[in-house]
Specification:
By secondary structure, the chain is an alpha/beta fold. The chain folds into 2 domains: about 90 residues, Nucleoside phosphorylase domain (Rossmann fold, 3-Layer(aba) Sandwich); about 70 residues, no CATH class. About 25% of the residues lie in helices and about 30% in strands. It contains 3 helices and 8 strands. Strands 2-3-4-1-5 form a 5-stranded mixed sheet. Strands 7-6-8 form a 3-stranded mixed sheet, with no helix packed on it. The longest helix is centred in the middle third of the chain and has 14 residues. The chain is globular, with a radius of gyration of 16 Å. The protein starts with 14 loop residues before the first strand and ends with a helix.
């Protein structure tokens, strides 16, 4: 996957790496940003604000996300790595289109907590909070209420 660096690397030649599962999750972003370069089949570079970004579309699943993230780390001088996508929410007052910037990522299966570098992306956000990773889709309001109780508190 050796690819050229984006046109304007950031400080010390580094860029922000981003991984998304689906192209439809990033299409609005790619249409909005100027100077988007296609570096490969599912690989793009652009400036987010003034920050150079390399964005890879991985496909669904943790294995695909890990593979693509590893390739970004191996082929680019990254200043940070971020995931991008759409997700459901455990907070009732969030509205469609709200941007939540994760303070930490909670892995449901292993119970591990990963703290996030919150100042990495130059984006406006509605709220900060925790991101919970589950093994599958949460498909009912009862399951959402249960996860909320376990990880956040009172529903």
């Amino acid at each position: 996957m050796t690819s050229p660096l984006p046109a304007s690397p950031g400080e010390n030649g580094s860029v922000i790496g981003m991984v998304a599962a689906f192209s439809w999750e990033v299409t609005p972003l790619l249409r909005r940003e100027k100077g988007v370069q296609r570096l490969g089949r599912n690989l793009y570079s652009f400036l987010l604000g003034k920050e150079p970004v390399v964005l890879a579309i991985a496909g669904i699943g943790v294995d695909n996300a890990f593979r693509v993230a590893r390739n970004l780390v191996q082929n680019f001088s990254l200043r940070g790595l971020s995931t991008l996508g759409f997700a459901g929410a455990l907070i009732r007052d969030l509205q469609p289109g709200d941007v939540v910037l994760a303070d930490q990522v909670l892995e449901e299966g292993s119970q591990e907590r990963f703290h996030c570098q919150t100042g990495l992306l130059p984006v406006r956000f509605t709220r900060r909070g925790s991101l919970l990773c589950t093994a599958g889709m949460v498909g009912s309001s009862e399951a959402i209420a249960f996860l909320f109780l376990v990880y956040i508190g009172q529903w």
